[in-house]
Amino acid sequence: MTVPAFVVAARTMAYLNQRQEVIANNLANASTDGFKADRITGRSFDELFPEALASLDLQQGTVRDTGRRLDVALESDGFFVVSTGQGERLTRGGQLSMDAAGLLVDRDGNPVLGLEGAMHVRGELIEIEPDGTVVVDGARAGRLRVEQVANPATLVKEGIGRFLPTEGTIPAPDVRIRQGALEDANVDPMTGTVDMIQIQRAYSTNAEVLRVLDSVLGTLTSDIGRV
Known about the structure:
The chain is of the alpha+beta class.
């Protein structure tokens, strides 16, 4: 009876540790614009130690007005497309700016792509229409490229709210963009903190179970040895 109890406690602790890592990462990105949380959806029993099964939650975060003209928030499915040194990446982060060359870039300086490529937006008045059309001083400068994927499970997180699409993307059919606003992360810090406390308590309980079982096993071994 003792050995199976050891295994159960150890498996539970491994599972709790994985849950804690997922929730900690969500909390660390609670202030990242457009961040999408991972949610624990179950656990696998195929291995000696179970694996926490997580899936990407693409539910929209709260959209808040900022009043800054180069802040944009997607109020529909899809992602903005940025060009990085490693290739094209997807993001929901909409804190944009204009670099020294007049290109529209994200907060990390990566060009934000339009339907025709990088977008030049040098001018006095920049307007971004709900369908993504960018108008600079009354002249059309292009249209923001907004893409989506058929299967969110194929997206690979690369940090700071960016995703690598491992399968092809397609143009989002219904684009709705709000200028002067940003989408918050879909993370509830209060709920995440409560979950972390519960996990830590459960982990401590199982650690105590292991300690007690080890003590009992040690006692039994010693008594049997003396007999």
